[in-house]
Amino acid sequence: MDSIFFYRSPENSLSGGGPLQGVNIAIQPNISVASWPTDAGSKALANFTALEDATLVQRLRQAGASLCGSTRMSEFGFGLEGSRAGEAISRREADAELVLDLTGESRLAASRAACCGFKPSYGLVSRFGVVGLIPSMECCGLLSGSLETLREILKAVAGPDDRDFSLPGEEIPDFSPRPVDPQTTTVGVLAEAQGELNGGHKDAFSASVEDLNRAGFAIREISLPEFPLFSLVHNIVGSVEASSCAGRYDSVRYGQRIPGARNWNEMYLLSRGAAFGPLVKSYLFQGAFFQFERYDAYENACRIRARLVKEMAGILSQVDFLVLPAVSGASSGDPASITDLYARFSLTAFANVTGQPVLYLPSATGEDQPGVQLVAPRLSDARLLDLGGHLLTMGKGGN
Amino acid sequence: MFYSQRVFCGQLTLEDVGRRVLLAGWVDASRDHGGLIFIHLRDRSGIVQIVFSPEVALSDVCRGAAALRSEYCITVSGEVRKRLEGTENPHIETGNLEVLVTELTVLSESDAPPFAVSEKAMVAGAQSAGAESVAEDLRLQYRYLDIRRPSMRDNLVARHRIFQCVREFLDSRGFLEIETPVLTMSTPEGARDYLVPSRIHPKNFYALPQSPQLFKQLLMIGGMERYFQLARCFRDEDLRPNRQPEFTQLDIEASFIDEEFLYDLIEELTVRMFAVGGIALARPFARMTYAQAMDSTGSDRPDLRFGLRFVDVTDLFSSTNYSIFRQILQRGGCIKGINIKGQSERLSKNVLQNEYAREIVPSFGAKGMTWMRAEGGKLESNIVQFFSTDELEALRRRFDVEDGDVLIMIADPSYRVVTSVLGQLRLHLANRLGIIPAGSFSPVWITEFPLFEDDGEGGVTSSHHPFTAPERTDFDPKNVEELLKLRSRAYDLVMNGEELGGGSIRISDRSLQKKIFAALGLSEEETREKFGFFLRAFDFGPPPHGGLALGMDRTVSMILQTPSIREVIAFPKNRRAVCPLTGAPSAVKNEQLAELGLLNLGGRDVLPGTAEGENRIDHLSWVSRIGIAAEERPQLEKVLSQADELASLAADKAGAEEPMATVAPAANRMRPGTVEGQSALSRDQLLKSAPAVKGNYFKVASILE
């Protein structure tokens, strides 16, 4: 098997001081590091070398982290086909990884590697210098075996960035740890999120909820009948944004030029036709379809999105956290198809639509058992890490 | 009363007093004097005041009058009466009359006009709003209202009168008005053609005429002898403030004539046209050869309303010690100057040196300017010490210098630079010093133009067009030096520094025509291809002939002394060649282009995504510019049918919520330390990842095939 790394940094960067001193971080080649090859897994950016550091990278370096390289990724990070995310951690080549989360990729990669995976609140982390595909949903996810490392990374990278025009003007929440008292904490369980689980996964999830109950957390069954609409909204909005976003790959400034074009239009058709793989190309065609032929579908999806955001906010005002499984176990059998992708990510895509922070926590009982996703209200990222820390300690028999 | 009995507002006179009249027109302005309502009623002929008095008119008529607003279209009938002494209005033609209304009909109401149409104050001594302050594009957008304004109406009426005068005069001289086609072939006028695609013959185009040049010559060969036309011409030229993409020219051609016939004809015609505007021109018009005009004014369209003629002083400095002049003369240059009589008070040393010599003259293209002021019987200047007493004395005599005069001189190795710069200075000074007499008109014929110009590549091109007759026929078509000295039988009519028109005696001898083409370096094959049909006509006994074309928009504008030619055109384009009224030029539907065979300008037979009933995969492939291979189609078919389902599901599930595009709206941010439109990265960096680079630029495929 080829290397999990797409690029390894030659410099053995001995980091200076800082909270992340000695922390070895692997990124993906969709995050710009000056002079590193940065093709975001696509021929559309073949041979592209980043010209400057992403804000994320600047901040990690300032905090003392060292970047050891970038791991192989799926095209634009959409889905996990061809991605080696998580492996650097399981092979102890890195202490943490940055994995763009468009549909739930960071959480499922963490599940694969049986480590913690964290998708921060939408809008908390700068995306300047990150090659994206679905601007209103994607977010840089963090993988690590250690929740404390995750917290330190989040502290280092979160916050406003003058170079990222897409960031909201919100105040940065407090990231310092606080103890969790199970007696005053309610965890909601989404009934609809278990419907698709197969027998083994269902049992494992029930066991996890039982553990929470036993630890003293109040458990409340919550119903969100519209849960299946998250995938619908994600597919329509995501494909439209992707189609729009991919417009910049023109084979002029970067990427591959396919020779033989007689004119400008043919240059686009040929080069862009060859630039995208089957999954992304299908997605771009769907996006073009919604943009140019069924714009009403995009507007309708945005209306449903507004409703779902409201419903999620409502639920998270009734409970402190939500718990739900991460791995659906479903598959259409064709890993390059959009249907398959949304089947695999049916339990994770919700958070990209509504912007909540999600922590994937591996199972305490064994690496072959799937873990759970814990969800908190937007910008309550630190509380989510507090909860995760509490549960991990508890699983190790502490507390 | 019926329309047949209608009389015109502006034509009422004291003789009509006591008559009952029917008037029709628009409400120009109104005044309400507590029950007594005065209205200015305007039709094309002018304005008359109409009065609604409760003592005369029924109450519902008075109520109707009170509801009238500007630009309502009405008819009224009533009795003409003389105004009371002291209430006359000198602003309008009928100011000593008014009509006492008994009946009123509102024919149509009007929205409030976007600008004031009324130009005539209702009472003596009052001011009324003009259109000067209204944006021209707004006037053009509502041109139909703009031409209700008396001043615009007067312009259009005067234009009509001038055109009528042209027709009557030329008819009386035996000229026939004959129309020539507007859909035609491209002609060799030198500007860009407007093209009209042919539907019947796809990919073939008609050209709109830049002038009827070839047709009028063919009419001469056709024996029509004397022809004229008020022809619409079209030139796709770069935008200039006083230029229209289409314009009207008076096109004239006559057989068996010479230059004197045309000078006589056109002078008489010009005198009559200007007389319509109340301007008396004296005949005969002045004449200058091209060489004289350049020598004395630096322009082939000299403004002769004022003096400031050039004086050549090259010979006075043949042995000068002033090194700048000496070097210029050694390089074959020349020195010319102007005596600005009696202006030394307004042209101080400071103005001459710091404004003219340092700023203005370099911007005109010369390296420097020499100036001298005559005071106390002496010439003074910053460099006067470099000249000998003899030279200064010779200058005084040559320029006829008196105290208070200012001399300016330009010296340069190039005759073209000297005349061009001094010509621009001449106009600049005349405007600055205000020495151009207002209301004066100085027509002049410019004759003996060069037949050819240097084409910059060792050959020659026609100065006018290749059918212009040369002054002599015994030239050697291979001798470029001789060709450049040849003069033509062309002439321009210039008025106040503007070219009103021009023309020439044409070549009517086919062997001479061949010689001209040979001089232009055109092979027989090329000439056949370019002018074949036209030259063939010269094989059938062409008569000697010549003619001229006058720009009528410009001529009318000059006669009426309007600030732009748009003021004398009913529906002109604006300065950007756009018609704000109709929105022309505009995009057309793809269907229309397809019908004309114009969709394939990119080199394909039909652009994908534009054909009717086209496969949607091809359409989406085109609009998103992503090419597809045949084997990808089934997969794309599948994802699009899934997208169909998603769209229906979304339509089912969507509620009334406002669409939400993001969960956290972006804040306003400025990138610190960046410059708009400019990357902080170097060009090398930006080009580093490009797949194809040429020199310092991204290399791309051509826009068209």
Could you walk me through the main structural features you see in this protein, from its secondary elements to its overall organization?
The complex is a heterodimer of chains A (399) and B (705). Chain A is globular, with a radius of gyration of 21 Å. Chain A is 36% helix and 13% strand. In chain A, helix 6 packs across helix 8. In chain A, helix 5 (199-214) links the parallel strand 7 and strand 8 (218-222). Chain A is built from 12 helices and 11 strands. An 8-stranded mixed sheet of chain B has the order 6-9-10-22-21-20-17-11, with helices on both faces. Chain B is α+β, with helices and mostly antiparallel strands and 705 residues long. In chain B, strand 20 (490-495) and strand 21 (498-505) form a beta hairpin. Chain B has 5 domains: 3-108, OB fold (Dihydrolipoamide Acetyltransferase, E2P); 149-301 and 492-507 and 543-572, Bira Bifunctional Protein, Domain 2 (BirA Bifunctional Protein, domain 2, 2-Layer Sandwich), CATH 3.30.930.10; 306-436, 2-Layer Sandwich (Gyrase A, domain 2), CATH 3.30.1360; 450-487 and 509-542, no CATH class; 584-623 and 689-705, no CATH class. Chains A and B meet through helix 6, helix 7, helix 8 and helix 9 of A and helix 17, helix 18 and helix 19 of B.
Helix/strand/pairing class of chain A, anyone? alpha/beta
Overall domain count of chain B: 5
Helix content of chain A: 25-40%
Characterize the largest beta sheet of chain B: strand count, sense, and whether it forms a barrel.
8 strands, mixed
CATH fold title of the largest domain in chain B: BirA Bifunctional Protein, domain 2
Helices and strands of chain A, in order, run as EEHEHEHEEHEHEHHHHEHHEEH
- Seen as an oligomer or otherwise, the chain set is heterodimer
Q: Strand arrangement, largest sheet of chain A?
A: 1-3-2-4-6-5-10-11-9-7-8
CATH class value of the largest domain in chain B: Alpha Beta
